[in-house]
Amino acid sequence: MEKKLFGVTALFNTPDEIIKAAKGVRESGYVKYDVFTPYPIHGMDDAMKLKPSKLGYLTLGFGLTGTFIALFSMWFTMAMDYPMIIGGKPFFALPAFIPVTFELTVLLATLATVIGMLTFFFYFPNNSHPLHDTTFMKAVSHDRYGVCIESIDPKFDITKAKTALSGLGGYDIQEIYYPEKSDIRLFDPKFIVFLIVVAAVTSGAIYFALNKLVYMQPFTWMQHQQKLSAQAETKFFADKFSMRPKVEGTVARGYIPYEFKGLAAPTTEIVNPTFPSEKNLALGKKKFLTFCSPCHGNYGDGDSRLRGQFPNPPSLHSAKVRGWNDGNLYHVLVNGQNVMPSYESQILPEERWAIVNYIRVLQKAKNATLEDIQAVRKEGK
Amino acid sequence: MKIDYSIEAPAIEGRLSIAQIEALIAKPLDSKPDKKFLLALSVSGSALALGAICVLMTFYFGIGLWGNNQPVGWGFDIVNFVFWVGIGHAGTLISAILFLLRQKWRTGIARFAEAMTIFAVMTAGLFPALHTGRPWLDGYLLPYPNQHGLWVNFTSPLLWDVFAVSTYFTVSLVFWYVGLIPDFASLRDRTTSKLKKTIYSIFSLGWRHSHRNWQHYEKAYMLLAGFATPLVLSVHTIVSFDFAVSIMPGWHATIFPPYFVAGAIFSGFAMVVTVLIFVRKIFDLEHIITVNHLEKMNKVILATGMMVGYAYAMEFFIAWYSGNPIEQFVFINRAFGPYYWAYWIMVSCNVLFPQLFWVRKFRRNIPLMFVVSIFVNIGMWFERFVITVTSLHRDFLPSSWGYYTPTLYDIGILIGSFGLFFTLVILFTKALPVVSIAEIKAVADGAQPTHHEEGGSH
């Protein structure tokens, strides 16, 4: 393979010489050349006639982006998504947001400047540049100053470039060639093994972290605490229950004791105090589906989901139940009936009546007459 | 001894050539660690190990092992945090502010001071993290969408701290790395070891000392210095807000931000002097880190020490002037209450001893400046102790007054923090050039063009 020329280099000994050389090269009309110095030399920008660096625009742009992101996210979190009054300040408390805004501005501007400079301006990382590992690079890295005229320059001509450089006082004039490319093979067995190892290690680590580590002390996210949890056994109480029964002789809020408790039927008629509004029926439906449907079925047909594990409950659409007044239904719910347990402790009076109203709706729906349907249709229009 | 302060002292003494400078700075990296190095490392490593044990015990048993409890909820953890963040400030001041002020003498010490900043902020960062009690949950400090539907409180100074310290650390690290890139390139082209060459190549990113790069590089360095300057001021200001935004007498003071910043620079410079005295001796860098540089730092110590002294006086004045009896009580209690000893250690170390630096002889006397810088470090640690603990231990309600005593774990973690800091510093001296090679070359004699022969074309 024929070697490809990158450029011609020359070394110089003093800063004055390199300034002169840079000027000379520029004045002979070269544009694709560069000067190499172990540290920045004052006056070189001028000698090379470089345009001022545009890096500042990047800094400005990203700095302002940081400002905007900070203010926007603080406005969103503190004033929109979860507004909370803190210290009597307004939700959008600008003075209190200044520190974070400032920090984010600086952070974004700094990172953008550096990352932008390295990638967009320098095309780094680049360790395979033809100049690397040359005696030229070693010299300019150390204490010499160098010039390189690149072969892509429109005016480039190898002999002319060399004479130009030596004419300017340069020594150790060299031709720099592109390094021969070693071809990268994707299916190199070593590479494949490497990939497999990486995959195994990462997936193993993720599995361990998510499935094991988070359940280990102390990463259990405060799961284990020295308190009794509702369903757990405890040694603290004689009956081993963590949940405590009501203290004798007390009444829980909202649960007024039922006056016909234990009787077969209420001795005086209990009047339904609620009006079956849409809201009330929605509550009734919700509670019916929660508490009653497992045995009585979703529509009260007695088609239990328990499938014979429990004596099948009767349908709520029997003539008997339809004939009952609301008070009777309420009584069964609160008091229980034979094998059906009492729901007194779980359902509030308001909700009990809502269930009764909802059962009435179910009954009406299952046994509707033609007139009922017509009436509903009319209302619907 | 006569010194003419009207001429700028040379940044490098002894007319070293550029090649000599590079060889001198790269020497510790090219040679094998010697006995002294290993001895120093084992001392700091033991301190670090002690701290690590105390920290692990704290993880396991919880922060109940520490001495802080009602009414003193902030103890050594916060004292150490403020102390170490403060130490970090000198580095940024030297590398950024003095850069903007075109102080050539900073070149010799900037790299080292920046490294100290990074290590000090790393050390500092541990304390708030530990102080939360469950450091593995510290992710909650960041605002991220979570299952609780909650956000962090952006109006809290403690959260500002999270942003300020993490930004400060990131920016310092980036600034430091940018400064290192050309040095990595020089080291890459200098070393003969293949492994070292690979490592240096990776970190140099392929830097070629090209002037087309230098141009942007210098611009970027300027911009970063420009950012780091307000940033460093903001960091300790925000740290002081942790106190000043509360309504505790003794904390609720508008003087806190400048007072804290001055204190930070004061303690940071003292720490830099302490460490540099050894570094210049051990690595034969006396020509690069000259007595003139140390003297300049001592002047800064003198100036900032007096600012701190002024703040101490002003706190008392304002307590009296405000006419607030509780405020007055807090300050009298500070100086004459149960913690009087801490207060007077602070005043004597921070205000009295630095006064020696008025005398030129003392400013240039290495053993003496070492002693004073150690005193200043002690004094500044006690300053944070005094602010934090004495304000808390007797507040509005006499029935809940108390006396804070640290436990052995507190002390162990404090020692461990020094261990961590010095271990990092010691490893740094052997792993990276302690002086910026490129920058120091640029200020050497004859390193810049003379500009005469061209007939004033610039």
Describe the structure.
The complex is a heterodimer of chains A (381) and B (458). In chain A, α8 (278-296) packs across α11 (349-366) and α10 (326-335) crosses α11. In chain A, strands 2-3-1-4 form a four-stranded antiparallel sheet, sandwiched between helices. Chain A has three domains: 1-182, no CATH class; 189-221; 278-380, Cytochrome c-like domain (Cytochrome Bc1 Complex, Chain D, domain 2). Chain A has helices at 15-27, 44-48, 55-81, 94-121, 135-142, 158-167, 189-212, 278-296, 319-323, 326-335, 349-366, 370-380; strands at residues 5-12, 33-36, 145-150, 171-177. Chain A is elongated and about 125 Å long. Chain A is of the alpha+beta class. By secondary structure, chain B is mostly helical. Chain B has a single domain, classed as Formate dehydrogenase/DMSO reductase domain (Formate dehydrogenase/DMSO reductase fold). Chain B is 68% helix and 0% strand. Chain B is built from 15 helices and no strands. Chain B has helices at residues 18-30, 35-61, 76-100, 107-131, 157-188, 194-204, 211-244, 256-282, 291-322, 325-336, 340-352, 360-363, 366-393, 408-431, 437-442. In chain B, α3 crosses α13. Chain B is globular, with a radius of gyration of 23 Å. The two termini of chain B are 40 Å apart. At the A-B interface, α1, β2, α2, α3 and α4 of A face α1, α5, α6, α7 and α15 of B.
